[in-house]
Design brief:
M1 Pyruvate Kinase, Domain 3, about 90 residues, mainly beta, 6-stranded antiparallel sheet, 6 strands, single chain, globular, 1 helix
Length: about 90
Amino acid sequence: MIRTDRLADVIWDDPMTLNGFCVQHGERFEPGDVIQMEGSKELMLVKSSSGRWVHIQRGYASTRPEAIRSDQVIHILGKAEELKRIGE
């Protein structure tokens, strides 16, 4: 089952180079989670989370970074290791 959350309403300088953001429910994110913004092909890897802040690696699995918008839905796809096994 895909878990979801939503970006908090924040303002940032450059949505293409952003390496972290505030979410509504930070407890849903764990290091190693692969996430994808609704309507985006880019995958991101969760590096860490603290409170409502999530630190990410952009362009995971050779995907191209795309702009991020406030209030965008985030799909938590699963752990990177599990997704790699499924793809093998």
